Amino acid sequence: AELGPEGNLLFFFLVQSLKPVFENLAGEWRGAFKELSWNEGFCPFCGGFSGMGEIRAEGRRFLHCLLCGTEWEFPRLQCPYCRSQDPERHSYFQVEGETENRVDVCQACRHYLKTVDSRDLEGPLDFEVEDYLTLHLDHIAQEEGYLRPEKLFVEVQ
Questions:
Q1: Residue 21, domain extent
Q2: Helix (H) / strand (E) containing 72
Q3: Could you read off the pLDDT tens digit of each residue along the chain, which spans 157 residues?
Q4: Euclidean distance between the first and final Cα of the chain, in Å?
Q5: To which H or E segment does residue 73 belong?
């Protein structure tokens, strides 16, 4: 159902008010998830969709939950949304001069994931801040017809 502008704003503030609770709980359980082999594109702790990706040393890819702060390793050549592994259906684009930021796109499901290549960056990243700093990439991806998941959480069936 469409919430409209007022409903979207209310939902945003509701989510923001719950973030510290989710982050705190996830922090307490984070050690248990380090050993977990998780091959899903949604958060193993809260079920939220992956909000950002990260490429680390040796080209390893990690997904980051923007709701609780959990991170998990995920296959680099797989779409976190539809799980397609067809290399012909995956690509990415970058904005000139922004070598650390890119947008991974999947032709199979038409979704995208903003990704930070942190191999040449120093210090820890705040992925919630990175998400806001790269809003222009959302605009470009959406202009090209790609989507971010509309829902915050995966639906349990």
A1: 4-143
A2: strand 71-73
A3: 455 666 666 766 676 777 776 677 666 666 666 667 788 898 888 888 888 999 998 999 999 988 888 888 999 999 999 999 999 999 999 999 999 999 999 999 999 999 999 999 998 899 989 999 999 999 999 999 999 987 555 554 4
A4: 19
A5: strand 71-73
Q: DSSP character for 152? A: S
Q: What is the pTM of this model?
A: 0.81
- CATH code assigned at 55: 3.90.1670.10
Interstrand relation of 90-93 and 101-106 (parallel, antiparallel or unpaired): antiparallel
Q: Is residue 153 part of a domain?
A: no
149 within some domain: no
Q: Is 53 helix (H, G, I), strand (E, B) or coil?
A: strand
